[in-house]
Amino acid sequence: MKNQEKPTALLQQQEQELREAVDYAVKIATAAGASAEVLVTKVTGLSVSTRLREVENVEFNNDGELGISVYLGQQKGNASTSDLTPQAIKNAVNAALSIAKYTSPDDCAGLADKELMAFDAPNLELYYPAEIDVDNAVDLALKTESSASDYDEKITNCEAAFNSHTGVRVYGNSHGMLQSYLSSRYSISCTAVAGDEQQEQDYEYTVSRDLNKLQLPSWVGENVAKKVISRLNPQKIATQNVPVIFANDVATSLIGHLASAISGGSLYRKSSFLLDHLGKKILPEWFHISERPHLLGQLASTPFDSEGVRTSSREIVDRGILQSYLLTSYSGRKLGMQSTGHAGGIHNWLVTPNLSGGLTALLKSMDTGLLITDFMGDAINLVTGDYSRGAAGFWVEKGIIQFPVAEITVAGQLKEMFSQIVAVADDIEYRSNVQTGSILIENMKVSGN
């Protein structure tokens, strides 16, 4: 890898230019009698993919767009531009002002409250520079693919990729807020196919803001090879009601459904099965979810949301009781509440485990049932909580994996599924904005033969 000073200096220069562009846009709107907020994100990166030990794709990207929202009273107009010259910015602001004049007033529209702004946004160490050229990137991808292909002769096809992206995020508004930060993200991934007549496919990856904290290419390649080989010759099982384990990397989606159900948009539209559940028990008494948006260097950390609202640590679920909704300024006003800093998503949800020993201990706790490692599609009704997904995984007896299973469907009702969570293991998945271990649910319907 090359010297890191050059990319850092260039990115800092770009950050200053974007700050000036945002400030300019806000000033034009303010001079026209409007309040305004401006968000710009600029991402630069390199992506390399390989297949069958040959370079398949090399792509450089340099993408960014300035988006502006203006408010004439309670009338809102939006516009955007990827051209950041002064005239182009002025044209975008004028376009937003013109649109606002023709929109219907909305008494919930407007900037987030000034007292919620992140005027003192902390440095969360989200940027780790590493100047990587194409040769470096190709080498990492080819090593990953080779590790998978060479692991076992049953592997028939492999694809690997390396991605390096750095970005600048700048937000400003008429409250006088102007904040920005740099970020980086690096990843290595690999997809492998194994088998002859009936082929199986699996995927593995490593991701971090710091290139030096990525797993080795050999780890990625060997892991995906082990995973796909373990899925060969799957069997079908009879339709039945059994305990089910969601492996940690798919358990994140289960907690993600909870996040969707308590988001302000779902709540004020009355399209959530957890409507009016704030302060009520929705999970077992031992269950706890914390949100920690200021963890240094984490993938889902952020000092402020996309409305400039400062993010803060909070308990989402404590002793099984729902402690907080996830609100933007608009949904908060709709519900007569205050923004919680969730415009743009959630920030480092930490699910507290209650079982040590990882997946091995969780399998023993279940004894007999289904371990789900992959989902295909979904049919989830957020209004009723009805849940149905195609799945694949492994059949377990006496705490030991017996054989792979495929072409099954698991079904339930999310509120009941939450209440029937028996345990969360300590095999935490750290690559997601939801950090949870594998989750055991006491009883679900599994449809097979």
From TrEMBL:
> Which species is the source of this protein?
Seminibacterium arietis
**Protein name per the record:** Metalloprotease PmbA
Q: Where is the Metalloprotease TldD/E central domain?
A: 128-232
Q: Which SUPFAM superfamilies match?
A: Putative modulator of DNA gyrase, PmbA/TldD
Q: Where is the Metalloprotease TldD/E N-terminal domain?
A: 36-100
Q: Which domain of life is it from?
A: Bacteria
Identify which top EC class this enzyme belongs to: hydrolase
A GO molecular function assigned to this protein is: metallopeptidase activity
Pfam families, per database record? PmbA_TldD_1st, PmbA_TldD_2nd, PmbA_TldD_3rd
Indicate yes or no for the key word Transmembrane helix. Answer: no
Family assignment from sequence similarity: Belongs to the peptidase U62 family.
Stated EC number for the protein is: 3.4.24.-
PANTHER family to which the protein is assigned, alphabetical: METALLOPROTEASE PMBA
Taxonomic lineage per UniProt?
A: Bacteria, Pseudomonadati, Pseudomonadota, Gammaproteobacteria, Pasteurellales
Q: Which keywords does the record carry?
A: Hydrolase, Metalloprotease, Protease
Q: Report domain Metalloprotease TldD/E C-terminal positions.
A: 239-448
